[in-house]
Design brief:
The chain is α+β, with helices and mostly antiparallel strands. It contains 3 helices and 8 strands, in the order E-H-H-E-E-E-E-E-E-H-E. It has 2 domains: 75 residues, no CATH class; 74 residues, no CATH class. The protein is 32% helix and 44% strand. Helix 1 packs antiparallel against helix 2.
């Protein structure tokens, strides 16, 4: 079984931001507010998402792990897979700048790691990654674990 952790930088920042309140309340000896908010801050900072691939039994799972210990999520059956491929995807998105009715155009790009499904013209998304080197490393580990051919369409 292969577990792929997804990025969690927002949780660290949010947990650090929430930690300011329990620090203040515990410093002032207000335990009724301090302890629950401290638990909330710890839970937020240690929660992360990951994808698990079990090629032996043919399942893919997406999980959220609370406190770094309690996995929540479910499994779905993997279809028959021909090979694995990496594809570049980019799109232009209009984004409003702070409620000013002024829009800026942003180019969002990501790399998709997908399974090529047998007897289908569509693929099954395994993981989306922002960095090409990380995408290639993840794709290589998936291909090695699942004994799949890897095709890189980003070159």
């Amino acid at each position: 079984m292969l577990k792929i952790a997804l990025p969690r930088t927002r949780n660290y920042v949010l947990g650090a931001f929430i930690f300011a309140f329990p620090f203040y309340t515990l410093f002032n000896k207000e335990l009724y507010f301090g302890i629950p908010s401290l638990l909330l801050a710890i839970c937020t900072a240690t929660t992360y998402n990951y994808i698990a691939l079990d090629f032996a039994d043919g399942y893919k799972g997406e999980f959220t792990c609370l406190f770094g210990l309690i996995p929540l999520g479910g499994w779905e059956r993997l279809p028959a897979i021909n090979h694995l491929f990496i594809k570049h995807f980019s799109e232009l998105v209009k984004d409003e700048i702070s409620d000013s009715s002024i829009y800026q155009t942003l180019k969002q790009q990501r790399y998709l790691i997908m399974f090529a499904v047998s007897n289908s013209s569509e693929g099954m998304l395994a993981v989306q990654v922002q960095d090409i080197n990380r995408a290639r490393n993840i794709a290589q580990s998936i291909a090695t674990t699942g004994a799949l051919e890897l095709r890189d369409y980003t070159r």
